[in-house]
Design brief:
Layout: H1 2-9, E1 17-23, E2 39-43, H2 46-55, E3 57-59, E4 62-64, E5 141-144, E6 158-161, E7 167-170, E8 180-186, E9 191-198, H3 210-215, E10 224-229
Parallel strand pairs: 9-10
Antiparallel strand pairs: 1-2, 3-4, 5-6, 7-8, 8-9
Amino acid sequence: MIKDEISTFNKPLDLKVIGTPYWLTSESKRIGGQRAASLVIAFATEEEQTRAIRNRLSIGGISVRVEKIRSVLPSTQCTRCLGYGHLQQRCPKPEPNCAFCAGNHHTREHACTACGIAGSPNTIPPRDDFTNFSSTTHQSFVQIAPNHPDHLRPRTLAYVSKTCELNINLAQNSPCDTDIQIISVSDGQNTIQVTNLYNQTGQDRTELNTFQRHLKSSLPSLDSIIIGDFNAHHYMWEP
């Protein structure tokens, strides 16, 4: 019946439903008196899916919202309550939980015990000249900016806790580039290098991304860690 409804009353969208639509919540798990639920529908092509999401569907004389189904595993952790098996958008808990103190507030609202500031610092650079680049300061941390041309905005930045007992500084071999910084971490006897990169084409209009510019031909030593935003897109979640 639902399949016929979609075909009959959404003809301008030219949709072809494949398989049999089914309710996301089984009848045995429905709450008594429940009058609304989610329906899972599969379309023949991704283009049809996009049209349905953008234009909504008419089912039973009602215009209903359409969204892409999210696969949730038992190990999926909610960023709101920190529970498992669901996402933040479908969190069933009445109150959020903080990942730092387990209090009933969002993690982003957690206040630092040293200064009382809630949330993490945001990068606020000067408008034109980046010679003396700075970010929002926090009395519990020091900043390490990358070597960078004065006219380009740094796109990497490291915060180091003032209570850290390790020797941490910008390595001598850190390139002059806004999108990469190599941090030297030492305990006085052993040293490792942490490469923090934003994998993107350069701000100076070069077509090479950060990995191609600096790491493709000369990978770091074995005593190193590479972290950052790799822009590793995948067709399943972000074409």
